[in-house]
């Protein structure tokens, strides 16, 4: 069964679907960032964390290719349930606490990361009218911050008082609860599937390149996504190694950034709705995350605690707050009934940033430190914001 726009099908209720898709993203986010959050206690190096993230997002890049097709065949809620299974399997592998086990966990989690956004976009794209998508999609995208905040606050104390394996076990329990919820809701949102073509790599590239607006979104999302994953994955290690924070303190500061990201996903959605220009909002967010990354990388160790918390709040507001507006704009630009395919196509570019950023950080950190890595990513984010501004200027000519 498929979730796609169908004018003849009665519309099921919206908010249970929003809650389910938000919970799905929260679960995936919690699993993805768990190793980075418990890294100081588990003794994980930046290279190991980078390898874990690269493995997860490399597989997610591949799984996003068939994510939209899978949604068409079995429906968004069944895909969500399968993502919960992949999360549980990945965290079960992480329990072994070896470098190879962490790599295997990343590979398994990639099977959840790739399909979850197309699944959500297809379901909500059918239920939400175009004029309300920016706000509703922003609400759904708060799942990433919800999962990260919960992880930042809950997992460090568990890792410190018990063991890193206990933190991973907590995520497994959450995955089991989510699986049961998705399966219970699934019949409500299952409708007859239309005949939809499958998009290969060349089709995706054509879909993106055929529309300058879609192409600009795809290009800008590469450094934006890279910045977001490094903030979430490496900040706790950065805080304990270069900012003189304890493990739990670094978790609290990261939670502040993630809470700001949650506020940003709602706030940026409201701003985009008011300004009627999602790309302008995305450009502002890109410029903001660039400034925050450079300031944190250059002067972070010199900042007092209050200023550091404020800076990380602004960092999270921008680097973790842009996704809802981004996904909503893809849905607005997509042809009717093709939201899942368009989302998967543009996310192919986004995943390149998620794959490349950890590799870049692993390469740069031994030479310039994590601070220097943040500066490099900040400059790339500024370039992404410039691409959006240039496209908007071209559109006005």
Description of the molecule:
By secondary structure, this protein is an all-alpha fold. It has a single domain (about 15-190, about 200-395), classed as Growth Hormone, Chain: A (Up-down Bundle). Helix content is about 85%, strand content about 0%. It has 13 helices and no strands. Helix 8 runs parallel beside helix 10. The longest helix has about 60 residues, at about 340-395. It is globular, with a radius of gyration of 19 Å. It starts with 13 loop residues before the first helix and ends with a helix. Residues about 1-5 and about 190-195 have low confidence and may be disordered.
Helix and strand topology:
Blueprint (H helix, E strand, L loop, with lengths): L13 H29 L3 H29 L1 H19 L4 H29 L5 H29 L2 H22 L15 H9 L2 H31 L4 H29 L2 H22 L5 H15 L3 H11 L5 H58 L1
Structure characteristics:
397 residues, mainly alpha, Growth Hormone, Chain: A, disordered N terminus
Proportion in β-strands: under 5%
From the alpha-carbon coordinates, what is the Rg to the nearest angstrom? 19 Å
The name of the CATH superfamily reads: MFS general substrate transporter like domains
Q: Write the H/E string, N to C.
A: HHHHHHHHHHHHH
In short:
The protein is mainly alpha-helical and 397 residues long.
């Amino acid at each position: 069964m498929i979730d796609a726009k169908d004018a003849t099908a009665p519309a099921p209720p919206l908010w249970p679907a929003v809650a389910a898709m938000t919970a799905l993203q929260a679960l995936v986010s919690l699993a993805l960032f768990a190793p980075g959050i418990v890294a100081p206690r588990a003794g994980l190096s930046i290279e190991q964390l980078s390898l874990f993230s690269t493995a997860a997002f490399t597989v997610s890049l591949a799984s996003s290719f068939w994510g939209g097709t899978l949604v068409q065949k079995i429906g968004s809620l069944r895909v969500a349930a399968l993502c919960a299974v992949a999360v549980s399997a990945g965290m079960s592998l992480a329990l072994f606490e070896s470098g190879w086990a962490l790599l295997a966990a990343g590979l398994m989690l990639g099977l959840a990361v790739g399909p979850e956004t197309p699944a959500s976009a297809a379901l909500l794209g059918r239920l939400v009218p175009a004029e309300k998508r920016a706000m509703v999609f922003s609400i759904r995208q708060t799942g990433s911050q919800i999962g990260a905040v919960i992880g930042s606050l809950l997992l460090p104390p568990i890792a410190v008082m018990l063991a890193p394996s206990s933190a991973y076990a907590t995520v497994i329990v959450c995955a089991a609860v989510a699986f049961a919820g998705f399966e219970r809701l699934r019949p409500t949102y299952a409708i007859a599937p239309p005949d939809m073509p499958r998009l290969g790599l060349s089709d995706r590239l054509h879909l993106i390149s055929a529309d300058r607006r879609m192409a600009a979104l795809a290009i800008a999302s590469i450094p934006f996504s890279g910045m977001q994953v490094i903030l979430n994955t490496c900040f706790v290690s950065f805080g304990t190694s270069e900012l003189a924070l304890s493990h739990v303190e670094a978790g609290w500061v990261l939670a502040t950034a993630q809470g700001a990201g949650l506020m940003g996903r709602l706030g940026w959605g409201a701003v985009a709705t008011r300004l009627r220009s999602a790309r302008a909002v995305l450009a502002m967010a890109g410029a903001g995350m660039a400034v925050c990354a450079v300031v944190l990388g250059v002067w972070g160790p010199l900042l007092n605690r209050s200023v550091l918390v404020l800076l990380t709040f602004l960092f999270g507001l921008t680097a973790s707050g842009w996704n809802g507006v981004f996904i909503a704009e893809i849905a607005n630009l997509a042809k009717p009934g093709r939201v899942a395919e368009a989302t998967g196509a543009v996310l192919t570019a986004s995943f390149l940033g998620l794959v490349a950023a950890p590799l870049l950080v692993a390469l740069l950190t031994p030479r310039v430190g994590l601070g220097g890595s943040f500066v490099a990513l900040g400059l790339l984010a500024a370039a992404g914001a410039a691409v959006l501004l240039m496209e908007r200027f071209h559109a006005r000519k």
